[in-house]
Design a protein that fits this description.
CATH architecture: 3 Solenoid
Strand content: 15-25%
Number of domains: 1
Radius of gyration: 16 Å
Largest sheet: 6 strands, mixed
CATH class: Mainly Beta
Helix content: 25-40%
Length: 197
């Protein structure tokens, strides 16, 4: 899984923008501006990327404090306006796509490249004090209303159907759904969901 441990901000943002611009078929400057202004999910991703970059890049308090304050305020705006919070300690690979805003909470988890997160999704630790946060592979599609928690691993290309509670690890390319979670398909290709959002 490739995550943004290197702190290179602009290549990650370009990949995120490319995922959103696919719907419009172009990457002109005006298209990029429109996508950023019109897409709450992308705005939240950009705020997260900024916060992650600040945390990894600036160690000197004189420079770090105003940037952290800026990130704090922007993050609060994303929470109030769009209902999206992505913890700046999360490690998220390039090409994240958040299709719809509202009720999205991503804790300090690891998420691979080219994943999709729908609305009302929670990704984080357990409430019973057992440590650990999810590690989500590349190309995972997470349906609306799903909850993924604990120190589990979701394999590359997995598909988590709407309103699914995932509390145990999943192998690559499976489709699961429900609460309690049940396996629907093995060796499932979710590229259609990821590309059509």
């Amino acid at each position: 899984m490739t995550t943004e441990t290197s702190g290179r901000l602009f290549p990650l943002i370009r990949r995120d923008l490319a995922r959103y611009a696919l719907k419009g078929g172009g990457m002109s400057f005006l298209r990029k501006v429109f996508v950023v202004l019109d897409t709450p999910g992308l705005q939240a991703i950009l705020v997260y990327r900024f916060g992650f970059w600040v945390n990894r890049t600036f160690r000197f308090p004189l420079f770090r404090f105003p940037l952290k304050l800026t990130h704090f305020l922007l993050n609060k705006l994303c929470i109030v306006l769009w209902g999206i919070h992505i913890n700046a300690q999360a490690e998220i690979g390039a090409g994240l796509y958040i299709g719809h805003f509202g009720g999205i909470l991503v804790g300090p988890s690891r998420i691979g490249e080219d994943c999709n997160i729908n609305h009302q999704v929670t990704i984080g630790g357990r409430a019973d004090g057992i440590p650990g946060n999810p590690t989500i592979g590349r190309g995972v599609w997470i349906g609306a209303g799903s909850i993924i928690f604990g120190g589990i691993h979701i394999g590359d290309g997995a598909t988590i159907g709407p309103v699914t509670v995932v509390s145990r690890s999943l192998p690559p390319k499976v489709m699961v759904i429900g609460n309690p979670m049940r396996l629907l398909r093995k060796d499932y290709d979710n590229s259609v969901q990821r590309e059509n959002f």
